[in-house]
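Per reviewer request, we include the raw input and output of the structure prediction for the construct analysed in the revised manuscript.
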Amino acid sequence: MTNPYKGRTGLDRMVRAASYSLDGLQIAYRGESAFRQETWAAALLLPAAFFVGRSWVEVALLAGSVLMVLIVELLNSGIEAAIDRVSYELHDLSKRAKDLASAAVLLSLLTCGAIWSAALWQRLGL
């Protein structure tokens, strides 16, 4: 049995995929306070990356670490939504999945913080 929704090709597929992606960003921004806070932090940090970074590699690392936080938060929200779709019942595997996704967000935040701290230390000589 083939999936009737997988038959799209070319420009039609790309337009629909972009639309779904924008829908996902809107859903995350409206429904997830953590994603909203991280989006505002990204709005400040992404332009700052061009001033703090001394080379394109440093700018890419700084900006990439910020975007990584947003990506991991989106994945975390998707995992939570899928678990909640299955059941709101407390279950060890549901807790495990949500805790692991949350730990991934924490690690992405720590990585971003470490990269920015190191760059600021080098740039400002603190």
